[in-house]
Amino acid sequence: MADNDCNVPMDKWQSRDAVQQMAASLGWNVKRIKIDDGCYEIKGLNEAGKPFKAKINPQSLAIMKLKVKGMDDDRDHRRNRQQHGDAPGPLDGVPANKLIQKGSTPKVQVQ
Q: Region annotation Disordered: residue ranges (predicted)?
C-alpha cells in the first residue's frame, strides 16, 4: 500500500457532489472525478486554465497531492533541449569579448 493512499472507511466519505463543490470553490473546472487508491482523484482545469490532477482525502476533502501540467515548463524545456543536443553549453553562444572568456572565472573588484 502506498503512503499516499487514503485509509478512510466508506461510511465516512463525503459525496461526489461535495467534492465537486469543493473544487468549484477553488475555481477548478472538473472534467472527471474517480476513486484511486481509496482517494478521490480530480482531473480538470485550475483557475488559471492549466490542466491538473489532484488527490483528495474522501473524509476531510483535503488536497493530498496536486500536479499542475506546465508548472515545470522551464525545467522541462531545458531538459528537452539538452537531450536533443540543441541547447547551448554554459558559455557557448556568448559573444567573444575581453570580459568573458571560455574557461575563465569572472573576477570582480569592489571599491
A: 69-111
Domains, the chain, in order of start with CATH, read 11-68 (3.10.450)
Q: Which amino acid makes up residue 97?
A: N
Cell 473524509 locates to: 59
Query: pLDDT tens digits for the chain (111 residues)?
Result: 456 689 999 999 999 999 999 999 999 999 999 999 999 999 999 999 999 999 999 999 999 999 998 766 555 555 555 655 555 555 555 556 665 666 666 667 777
The pTM of the whole model exceeds 0.85:
no
